[in-house]
Design brief:
480 residues, 2 domains, globular, Aldehyde Dehydrogenase, Chain A, domain 1, binds NADPH dihydro-nicotinamide-adenine-dinucleotide phosphate, 39% helix, 15 helices, 7-stranded mixed β-sheet, 25 strands, alpha/beta
């Protein structure tokens, strides 16, 4: 069985503990590789390597650094099939999704920040007759990047790329549930000419190796994407050490549908925004609010389309949904369906496990689920389920839907369907969300700020926001 290794100081190596954790294939429920069970000793090894590499990497010309990162992006592209297979097998997502979204986006992330850094400039402030201030933007030093399992390489690279482009050395940890593409990345980085110690990739459990990254005094910034509870723990641990923190956390996003929308476009996009990646995208719109005039029409058309959605093994080109990521996660999602029933909800379609033919008969497949009849304040409508489960709720007025949409602790994204221009702007202004899509979903421009409000996080990723996060501003004043 394949044993993955850590990537430290430009080389693959075994974890200091000598121990490994099982890595399950969600589509079959079988163990298919072993992951290093790393701990604080591995983090120390990576920090030592990064300390030695930092003067080399941070003093390299921007053009040279950019060239290495462009090569890294091209290196992933050149091995597209291998990365796509690994991502789909590790996560359970349809291969077609990994091929069209996950891996191409990882390629773009590296390419985007490799070239962005060439155009990154800092400010100067002239004081007439007095002098001039100029701001230097220096890399922070060693930074930690911790990412979740839902979009493994996509989110891993979304952090690592700007951190490296800005001149930092990185200690990165992918989710223990989906380590494979991060493992492959070390090889590509080496081939791209990245100096040893600049990028270090450690595998293992969040509570041990993740925690050791957060606590290490020489790791000066933490960029984290994951659950709100983990984010809260990280904030509590890192704050007394005055580390810079970027936290991208959970969501419970509203999808608000007005009667005057383009119905067909809304319907097909709502299928995606509800169930793409088995509903395991932090931006999925899991609470669908529909204006009463079209509620019955929407319900009939949506439930019909959802009930015909193909759930199949990730290799099947017809699969729209694959497996959810793990057995515990599948059980968590199913427990929310039971909770919804207890709270008075009616399951209109789905709500159960799908058993496929062997060898996928032990896989974690769930039918996409639509529930109605729930109060907007109930737990099903307030807590993040992060699976293929949506609720539908009617509304009459803008005021009413705003109250329901803004009622959760989260504030990541919102989707709005209307052809009324004034209403679109009015609502966008009032929604508690870091990202609002109007008549669209998941259209991403890598230059725009990305992140959430309330319990959905602190800070923004993307474009200059990310490069600002991964640099320290130093103002210099010169007297005339
Ligand atoms: P977790 O918070 O469980 O884990 C995220 C990462 O943190 C994993 O690598 C995990 O390691 C690690 N980790 C866990 N505990 C600690 C710790 N004490 N110290 C340091 N690191 C730790 O989230 P999930 O992986 O379950 O991801 C799903 C969550 O991510 C959802 O809530 C989702 O909304 C959110 N998310 C947010 C996004 C955003 O941009 N706002 C985007 C995508 C997802 P391990 O896996 O080994 O436990």
């Amino acid at each position: 069985m394949k044993k993955l290794q850590n990537f430290i100081n430009g080389n693959y190596c075994d974890p200091c503990s000598g121990e490994y954790i099982d890595n399950f294939e969600p589509a079959t429920g079988e163990v298919y590789s072993l992951i290093p069970n790393s701990n604080a000793d591995d983090v120390q090894g990576a920090v030592t390597a990064a300390e030695q590499a930092f003067p080399i990497w941070s003093n390299m010309s921007i053009e040279e650094r950019s060239e290495i990162l462009v090569k890294l992006s091209q290196g992933i592209e050149a091995r597209m099939d291998e990365f796509v297979d690994a991502e789909s097998r590790d996560n359970g997502k349809p291969r077609s999704l990994a091929a069209h979204v996950d891996i191409p986006r990882a390629v773009s992330n590296f390419h985007f920040f490799a070239t962005a850094i060439l155009h990154y400039a800092s400010e100067s402030h002239n004081m007439v007759g007095v002098g001039v201030n100029y701001t230097l933007r220096k890399p922070i030093g060693i930074v930690g990047c911790i990412s979740p399992w839902n979009l493994p390489l996509y989110l891993f690279s979304w952090k690592i790329a700007p951190a490296l482009a800005a001149g930092n050395c990185v200690i990165a940890k992918p989710s223990e549930v989906t380590p494979y593409t991060a493992y492959l990345l070390g090889e590509v980085a080496k081939e791209a000419g990245m100096p040893p110690g600049v990028l270090n990739i450690l595998h293992g459990e969040g509570g041990s190796v993740g925690d050791a990254i957060v606590k290490h005094p020489k790791i000066k910034a933490i960029s984290f994407t994951g659950g709100t509870n983990t984010g809260e723990y990280i904030a509590r641990t890192a704050a007394p050490m005055f580390k810079k923190l970027s936290l991208e956390l959970g969501g419970k996003n509203p999808n608000i549908i007005f009667a005057d929308c383009d119905f067909d476009e809304m319907l097909s996009t709502t299928l995606r925004s509800s169930f793409a990646n088995q509903g395991q995208i932090c931006l999925c719109g899991s609470r669908i609010f529909v204006q009463r005039e079209i509620y019955d029409r929407f319900k009939a058309a949506f439930v019909d389309r959802v009930s015909k959605t193909v759930v199949s093994n990730p290799q099947d080109p017809k699969a729209k949904l694959g497996a959810v990521v793990s057995k515990p996660h599948m059980e968590k999602v199913l427990s929310y369906v039971e909770l919804a029933k207890e709270e008075g909800g009616t399951v209109l379609t789905g709500g159960e496990r799908v058993i496929l033919d062997a060898p996928y008969d032990k896989g974690y497949f769930l039918r996409p689920t639509v529930i109605e009849g729930l109060d907007f304040k109930c737990r099903t409508n307030q807590e993040e389920i992060f699976g293929p489960v949506v609720t539908i709720t009617p509304f009459d007025t803008e005021e009413e839907v705003l109250e329901m949409a803004n009622s959760t602790q989260y504030g990541l994204s919102a989707t709005l369907w209307t052809s009324n221009l004034k209403r679109a702007h009015r609502m966008a202004n009032e929604l508690d969300a870091g990202i609002v899509w109007i008549n669209a979903w998941l259209v991403r421009d890598l230059r725009t700020p990305f992140g959430g409000t309330k319990s959905s996080g602190v800070g923004r990723e993307g474009g200059w926001e990310a490069l600002r996060f991964f640099t320290e501003a130093k103002n210099v004043f010169v007297k005339y």
